[in-house]
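Customer ticket, subject: "Can you confirm the structure for DUF2752 domain-containing protein?"

Message body: Hello, I'm evaluating your service for our small team and ran a test protein. I'd like someone to confirm that this is what the system normally returns, since I don't have a reference to compare against.
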Amino acid sequence: MSRPQGPVKPVDRRVWGLAGVGIGGFALAGIYRLSGLGIPCPLHTLTGLDCPFCGATRMAAALLDGDLNAAWHFNAAILILGPLIGVAIGYEVVAWSLSRAGWLSLPRPRLSPRAVAILTKVALGALLIFGVLRNF
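Agent reply: Thanks for trying us out. I re-ran your input and got the following:
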């Protein structure tokens, strides 16, 4: 590892978007934990079925309370995918920040557009399957 030389590649806008969603989700969980106010799921409201994201706010609130068992029961898929995505995003943002500050140049692997498309489809497919199975 060395000091960065030359211009620093910016962080992909999708990474910033996912980071914003994660931060916003934990902010909503904090509000839910403090006040009991949550955002109702439109699919659940209209059909009574749970979507793949139903329970995610309660799951994050349970994590804020340190209750991993409750978090697992509220939404296991997001409990598994969330930290994986969070670590990848956190590393990218920290590596970019250190390079931008001129302190340290960490490797920043880049996925090909094809790999991004495949990973996106796999994650969405897994969430879709989870959403169907949780309603049985």
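A couple of notes from the result: Helices lie at 13-35, 42-47, 56-64, 68-74, 76-101, 113-133. The chain has one domain: 13-134. Feel free to reply with more questions.
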